[in-house]
Recover the amino acids of this structure.
């Protein structure tokens, strides 16, 4: 049995992870951590604990799954690396510099870390298809839609999509005229990496959405749209379980679930 700890266990995603771990015959829920409802049982004798480091030292999980907050995730990962606890990270909001630092320390300590902006198989395919299309289209923009309680913008999925697209094309504004925004931000955020990309990312936050993304490609006389909708959070769980089982057998750093499919 793989012993799994869930960090952020009371949140909407964390609660789904708790349920998925309990239902998988190869996994054992050994601890649950959150800053709310401390002491309340989430499953049988598993009660919510408030201190991550103490929970890891006491329960010794093989792997933790973290769906917490962008403001705390970098510090949380430092705890996992320091305690040599493998971790599957679903919280977004990490900068490129932070990702590089995590990867470096993961390799130095031989502690496996999987960071995935999205665990939905459909969303990962959407990103792969967008990367493929980028070879043939020189104009593209990304629109991502999330519920109005999401704290970071743009989403980790949209940023990861842009990164994959840039690998196949370094300018997505070919032929565009010089622009003037009469309202600041009207054109969204311009994503660049090493002066490559020029992909406009537009973030929509509104009740009613879970998570959706559309990548729009344009060329003379045609438009290609690649769209994915998340209907509920259960769709992420197969990817989370896949990541847990992969990490149990490996110690490497991975950014993006597409790397283990």
């Amino acid at each position: 049995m793989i012993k799994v700890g869930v960090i952020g266990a009371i949140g909407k995603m964390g609660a789904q992870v708790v349920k998925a771990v309990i239902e998988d015959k190869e996994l054992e829920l050994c601890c649950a951590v959150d800053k709310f409802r401390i002491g309340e049982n989430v499953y049988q004798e598993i009660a919510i604990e408030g201190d991550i480091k103490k929970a890891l030292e006491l329960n010794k999980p093989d792997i933790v799954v973290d769906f917490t907050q962008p403001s705390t995730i970098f510090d949380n990962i430092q705890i996992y690396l320091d305690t040599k606890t493998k971790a599957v990270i679903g919280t977004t909001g990490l900068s490129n510099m932070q990702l590089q630092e995590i990867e470096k320390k993961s390799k130095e300590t031989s502690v496996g870390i999987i960071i995935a902006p999205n665990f939905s198989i459909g969303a990962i395919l959407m990103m792969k298809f967008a990367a493929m299309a980028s070879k043939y289209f020189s104009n593209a923009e990304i629109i991502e839609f999330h519920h109005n309680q999401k704290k970071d913008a743009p989403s980790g999925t949209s940023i990861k999509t842009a990164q994959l697209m840039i690998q196949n094309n370094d300018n997505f504004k070919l032929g565009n005229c010089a622009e003037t925004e009469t309202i600041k931000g009207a054109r969204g955020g311009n994503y660049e990496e090493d002066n490559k990309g020029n992909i406009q990312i537009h973030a929509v936050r509104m009740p009613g959405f879970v998570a959706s993304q559309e990548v729009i490609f344009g060329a003379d006389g045609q438009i290609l749209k690649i769209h994915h909708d998340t209907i509920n959070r259960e769709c992420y769980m197969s990817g989370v379980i896949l990541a847990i089982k992969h990490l149990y057998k490996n110690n490497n750093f991975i950014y993006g679930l597409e790397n283990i499919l």
In short: The longest strand covers residues 196-205. The CA atoms of residues 184 and 190 lie 13 Å apart. Residues 121-230 form a domain with the Dihydrodipicolinate Reductase; domain 2 fold (CATH 3.30.360.10).
